[in-house]
Amino acid sequence: MTFDFATRLRPNLPPGAARWGGFPPFNFIGGHNDAENLPAEALRAAADRVLAREGTTLATYQLESGPMGYRPLRHFISEKLARRAGMTVDPEDILVTTGSLQGLDLVNGAFLEPGDTVIVEEATYGGTLTRLQRLGVNHVGVPVDQDGIIMDALADMLNEMAGRGVKPKFIYTVPTVQNPTGGVMTEARRRTLLERAGQNDLMIFEDDCYADLLWEGQRPPAIHALDTDGRVIYCGSFSKSIAPALRVGYLIAPWEAMSRMLPLKTDAGSGALEQMVLAEYAPDAFHSHVETLCVALKAKADATVAALEEQFGTTAEFDPPRGGIFLWVTFPEAVDTTRLAEIAGAEGVAINPGAEWVADPATGRNKMRICFANPSPEVLREGIAKLADICHREFGVPERSANVAR
């Protein structure tokens, strides 16, 4: 007889985790990136240099830089944001976090309580939605297109909420290479968003985790860069530009807000080695690395688009991404992608069903998100062909299977 832990668990926990059995042959989920372009050797050399020079600082918590994170890394982040996002940020106002997810948790922990309301984009990051749900916070989705939040729809939503006496705590947006749609909010809409927020006395939470991976068009200034009222909290990450497993993100907010979020960061500091190595590597190599990575990612995006067009024809609708690592696909109404994901997963093809990436799950029933960054073009083509066979078998879409010549 063994001890019964189940009787001691608190209520309302998420479902139990399954044991990990390895990646499937065709892994199109998560935020994995391109292994061929990960700068492993340069990071190793950076680690050697920084540890030889400053390794003894590991004897103290926070590397003698204080609770905001390793000071040289914060200086690089400040310079990067000035160059790439048009932002002017004092390094002392940058908090290094354990990935952007910790940034989300700190913002939510400081500002949200059960029953609050947050405006999100209609299609948005699934990790944000699950966090809001666990906190008992209502989320309302505003329509988006490839140019970002549709501002007339936002105005109507805010007016309707005001009529019911509902005041959202903040607007959460992924404006630059949106997750999952790959769109980029125009500068005009960014300015209008700030106007709407000002008129309604709202915060904006700008999640810019994919912004470095824009390969098409000019990157607009960050919303934070256009903000004159100090109402924008900004988060970013090195997960997509360098490596997901490094778990290094950053959060930027006025000190009035940061001073209340910082005490919630009770981990005694984010990983020290990761911060030291990034700070050593990035000043000389980051920007050229990102340029090379974007070339590789665009090639994989093109391969994914070509495979979908070949295998699904017009039954798979999508806008080719302007950057990032995801493709957002819409199928005919007959296709239930939650069911498709379950069946395909059992056959080695992992996809993200759309219901997990939209504010209203019903609107994502026939959509899916594909992460194309990690598989090779050959694996992408083979996996999408297999997915088309499964989809044809289960839902009759596409009308002819992938093995039938078109």
**Amino- and carboxy-terminal Cα gap:** 61 Å
CATH superfamily of the largest domain: Type I PLP-dependent aspartate aminotransferase-like (Major domain)
Percentage of β-strand residues:
5-15%
Sheet/helix structural class: alpha/beta
Shape, please? Answer: globular
Order of helices and strands: EHHEHEHEEEHEHEHEEHHEHEEEH
Average pLDDT number: 95
Name of the level-1 CATH class of the largest domain = Alpha Beta
CA-atom Rg in angstroms: 22 Å
Looking at the structure, the CATH topology of the largest domain is Aspartate Aminotransferase, domain 2
In total, the number of domains comes to 2
Low-confidence stretches: 401-406
Count of DSSP H/I helices: 11
Major β-sheet, in short? Answer: 7 strands, mixed
CATH architecture of the largest domain: 3-Layer(aba) Sandwich
As laid out across the biggest beta sheet, the strand order is 2-10-9-8-7-3-4
**Helical content band:** 25-40%
The tally of beta strands, per DSSP, is 14
Describe this structure in words.
- Helices cover 39% and strands 13% of the residues.
- By secondary structure, it is α/β, with parallel strands linked by helices.
- The protein has two domains: 23-39 and 288-395, Alpha-Beta Complex (Aspartate Aminotransferase, domain 1); 40-285, Aspartate Aminotransferase, domain 2.
- It has a seven-stranded mixed β-sheet with strand order 2-10-9-8-7-3-4, sandwiched between helices.
- Strand 3, helix 4 (126-134) and strand 4 (138-142) form a beta-alpha-beta unit.
- The longest helix has 41 residues, at 272-312.
- Residues 401-406 have low confidence and may be disordered.
